Amino acid sequence: MYGFSLLPAREGIILLVAGAVMLLVFVARELRLSSPLMDIALWTKNRPFAFSNLAALINYSATFSITFFMSLYLQYVRGFDPGHAGAILVIQPVMQALLSPFAGRLSDRIPPGRIASAGMALTAAGLIALAFISDTTPVLHTMAILAVIGIGFGFFSSPNTNAVMSSVPKKSLGVASGTLGTMWLIGQMLSMGIATMIIAICIGRIEITASEHGQLLTSVMAGFGIFALLCLVGIVFSLVRCAQAPPTGASARP
Number of C-alpha atoms within 13 angstroms, CB side, residue 117? Predict the structure, then answer.
């Protein structure tokens, strides 16, 4: 993550490579331990578990920076005050909060991988739309896009959690929960790392003000374009795990 924050400098590239090497060393060490910190066998022998976690990683990598980018866009490109910008941004989490419980119950009757894939598809559609926003995009149009993304995330989060927890035996529920939480956190960090890297490349390491609104808009559009591509890749992973998903009703939730 520190390497991400330094890109495109040479030091950032060196740290990213070092981090990748350390990850490989970690995996190799875990494979040799009788009681590993992370059970690598769950990743290599349990396709629904592996692809559900990868889908979570990609989804959070593609969505966590939406609020960050949109807050900058609304304040420095559109000129809204923080309160007005916050009122617009709250639409996304409200839609997610309203629909997540319904999506979770629905995933007990319909294979959760299918619902999560549909949710990620909605999120990807919203990100594609955000990649084409401009300094004259109507506010209602922006609010509608954020609502679509919130709906998509609501239909992804609970069913994907259901898919992860129902893909392992009871003795591995703690490991599955911890692994999924790790994917969420890594995805959030990667999302912010990508966002800061894009801003560093497009604007530079300077204080962002309204005078840089042109470069900032370019950064926002580029960021959402990259996140949309990530989401499209995530849909593939989400659909692949459906082929070996456990039968409906195997949810580990009480």
Answer: 18
